[in-house]
Design a protein that fits this description.
Layout (H helix, E strand, L loop, with lengths): L10 H25 L3 H8 L3 H5 L12 H10 L3 H11 L7 H17 L14
Length: 128
């Protein structure tokens, strides 16, 4: 097995994601207060990393996620998930309070990207 470290991302891209994350935090604060909805912050803000628990195991290299968890990890770390949830709120399919969840989920993804974490390869390593 080979070890792979986090690939350096462009500084401009990371700054853009950090800016997005800051804007999302402000939006989360406003929406959470407006709808008195706080549990979604924890559930959707931390939830995407539950795939990391599923991806642990023996005989893995440092920084490697078990291949069985790569699909779930990559699915939960894309922006279209929170966009779909926000769209469901906009269409009236989901309660308005779930807008906080969509924002928290998008914040999680943006923060990961700002810190240099991206999607995983089939082998469970960070994509270059």
């Amino acid at each position: 097995m080979t070890t792979t470290t986090i690939a350096p991302r462009s500084t401009t891209g990371r700054i853009a994601y950090a800016t997005l994350a800051a804007l999302l935090v402000a939006a989360i604060a406003v929406e959470a207060i407006m709808y008195s909805s706080y549990w979604q912050i924890a559930a959707f803000g931390i939830g995407p990393d539950l795939a990391l628990l599923f991806g642990g195991g023996r005989d893995l290299a440092r920084g490697q996620l078990h291949p069985r968890a790569v699909g779930a990890y990559n699915l939960l770390h894309r922006f279209w998930g929170p966009l779909a949830l926000g769209g469901a709120v906009a269409l009236g399919i989901a309660p308005v309070a779930f807008l906080v969840g969509a924002l928290a989920w998008a914040f999680h993804v943006a923060l990961d990207r700002a810190m240099g974490y991206g999607l995983r390869t089939r082998d469970g390593f960070q994509r270059p």
